[in-house]
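Q: What does the assembled structure look like for these inputs?
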Amino acid sequence: EIVLTQSPGTLSLSPGERATLSCRASQSLSNNFLAWYQQKPGQAPRLLIYGASSRATGVPDRFSGSGSGTDFTLTINRLEPEDFAVYYCQHHGGSPPVFTFGPGTKVDLK
Amino acid sequence: EVQLVESGGDLVQPGGSLRLSCAASGFSVSNNYMGWVRQAPGKGLEWVSVFYSGGSKYYTDSVKGRFTIARDDTRNTLSLQMSSLRTEDTAVYFCTKGVYSGRTPLMAFDYWGPGILVTVSS
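A:
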């Protein structure tokens, strides 16, 4: 079973700064099925990135995903006020194939 | 426009049963993989179950044998029958739709319902 670890748990930043969020897998993700979601309080999650680096429809280009193997990164350039939220990474794989979420990183206002 | 709307959430006693439904519009559930994801109060996201377009179904270990996912192509709905409910099943349950590139499933979820609360308590 693959376990996803996200760091840091909380990231305190100001608008305009860059946010770098990490997602580390306990085993190499050979299929690169790694996604990132944003969730604001009281709302459903929103898909940002799939396939480790492809932006979902309508996602601003200040959001970018990178990485392979066990280490993946979500970068948010020039934080906007609406970007303060919790971010989750998610993987699909294994036998039987299951979906796994990381514990989340909260990006809050410094 | 793609929309997912869950219903059926309630307060139920431990050991009880509940059936959640998800009404889909703007697409056909039969042509997509669909799933349920839950979030306990103040906690993170937990995948619960998935129903693939070809008919395969999978569950997270903690609900195997207790939850059953089903699809009604005529009504364009997804459901989750939950039995032997435990206090740890208390959560907001989200209905989700899988994302594709063309006909290739990308193993993520691009549309989510607003969620429905299930409370298991005596």
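Chain B touches chain A at residues 35, 37, 44-47, 50, 58, 60, 94, 99, 106-110, 112-115 (CB under 8 Å).
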